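Entries read sequence, tokenised fold; example below:

***
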Amino acid sequence: MFTLPELPYEYDALEPFIDEETMRVHHDGHHLAYVKNLNDALVGHDEFLNMDIESLLKLLDKVPEDIRTKVKNNAGGHFHHSFFWTILKQNGGGKPNGKLLEAINKKFGGFDLFKEKFTQSALSLFGSGWTWLVLNAQELEITNIINQDSPVSIKHTPLFTIDLWEHAYYLKYKNKRVDYITAFWNVVNWEEIERRFDNNS
């Protein structure tokens, strides 16, 4: 059975950039629902319930067709949110160091240009989904992926993401996605993202 991970910080830790009410609704409401729906969809399919979530997302073509869409949506929602919580932190922001910064500078021409390109990509996404920084065949790439489709399912290694579903920001920022994205940069946990890059590059 899949389980809801605890947040690695208090619900109000990301104030004033992400408010406590949003974190409670986001984690205890939306994320929990993905976990519950995924477990419900896989009743009687213990071979999938016993997998880790990344393995399940890589093997969606093995899931019975009649439940595949529900599994994809809810497994994606569970994995993406579990990932998302770890790349946020209190007193975050700034920019990365080490090999990740070197790779960003090489690929995008500097951190500020990367940040601008990532922001513009996030603003361009229509509807719900996520903007990701991934490794695609060991090459850094910014990509938009709609709904709860997952970079893991297309053999990309996720490093960094922003949740662009309205439930991630609407209570505080209403329809002003740009304000949410601007605030988001202040709570990024670059140490965790550096760790993921170092472990996968």
User: Anything to note?
Assistant: The chain has two domains: 20-86, 98-200. The radius of gyration is 17 Å. The domain at 98-200 is CATH 3.55.40.20 (minor pseudopilin epsh fold). Residues 20-41 form the longest helix (22 residues).
